[in-house]
Specification:
The complex is a heterodimer of chains A (about 110) and B (about 110). With about 110 residues, chain A is mainly β. Helix content of chain A is about 0%, strand content about 55%. In chain A, strands 2, 5, 6, 7, 10, 11 and 12 form a seven-stranded mixed sheet that branches. In chain A, strands 3-9-8 form a three-stranded antiparallel sheet, with no helix packed on it. In chain A, strands 1-4 form a two-stranded antiparallel sheet. In chain A, a hairpin with a 2-residue loop joins strand 8 and strand 9. Chain B is about 0% helix and about 50% strand. Chain B contains no helices and twelve strands. The model of chain B has no long low-confidence stretch (mean pLDDT about 95). Classes of the chains: A mainly beta (about 110), B mainly beta (about 110). Chains A and B meet through strand 6, strand 10 and strand 11 of A and strand 10 and strand 11 of B.
Chain lengths: ~110, ~110
């Protein structure tokens, strides 16, 4: 089974800090994704990547950037964290072929104080 | 552009009653469609998916969904709801090319005894 691992389950950061959220998948997938989940808003796509060093903006990229230096790792960066970025962040990767689908990590609950 | 609408934010049904959760999507090509369920404090679990072929798709936990291209819908159904089905349900549409996966806002299901 594909594993998508997010490095932290809970994080508390201060306003203005630079924050890195890490995501690693173990199946050589090309496509990886970052979402944030907020009550009543569902999951909203922040950024996605379809190959190393390749990225595309999702629906809510403002205030975020990403890095994909290696195929297995996709990092979400909050350059200067703000309280409105307090949320649950979910990473996913895509399986293609016969078992097409998406595998999600367990999520990182980020609180910005 | 891809988009998904789940018209019902909150639904309450009695245990043993039938259930239908609505999902309407917008996508220019053949969509890849998914239903996920999320129990409180838990991760996303895939219920079922549709790519092509038979428009009635069977999933786990007794759920099924029907793809109707003419109505741009992919409604989720269950003939008899159990108390353990109480959760939040998300419909999602994916692009086969880019892999971009967009979610609806979610429907919260409450089950009355």
């Amino acid at each position: 089974d594909v594993k998508v691992t997010q490095s932290s389950r809970y994080l508390v950061k201060r306003t203005g800090e630079k924050v890195f959220l890490e995501c690693v998948q173990d199946m050589d997938h090309e496509n990886m994704f970052w979402y944030r989940q907020d009550p009543g808003l569902g999951l909203r796509l922040i950024y996605f990547s379809y190959d190393v060093k390749m990225k595309e903006k999702g629906d809510i990229p403002e205030g975020y950037s990403v890095s994909r230096e290696k195929k297995e790792r996709f990092s979400l960066i909050l350059e200067s964290a703000s309280t409105n970025q307090t949320s649950m962040y979910l990473c996913a990767s895509r399986t293609t072929g016969a078992n097409y689908g998406y595998t999600f990590g367990s999520g990182t609950r980020l609180t910005v104080v | 552009a891809q988009s998904v609408t789940q018209p019902d934010i909150h639904i309450t049904v009695s245990e043993g009653a039938s259930l239908e959760l609505r999902c309407n999507y917008s996508y220019g090509a053949t969509p890849y469609l998914f239903w996920y369920v999320q129990s409180p404090g838990q991760g996303l679990q895939l219920l079922l998916k549709y790519f092509s072929g038979d428009t009635l798709v069977q999933g786990i936990k007794g759920f099924e969904a029907e793809f109707k291209r003419s109505q741009s819908s992919f409604n989720l159904r269950k003939p008899s709801v159990h108390w353990s089905d109480a959760a939040e349900y998300f419909c999602a549409v994916g692009s086969g090319n880019t892999g971009k996966l967009i979610f609806g806002q979610g429907t919260t299901l409450q089950v009355k005894p």
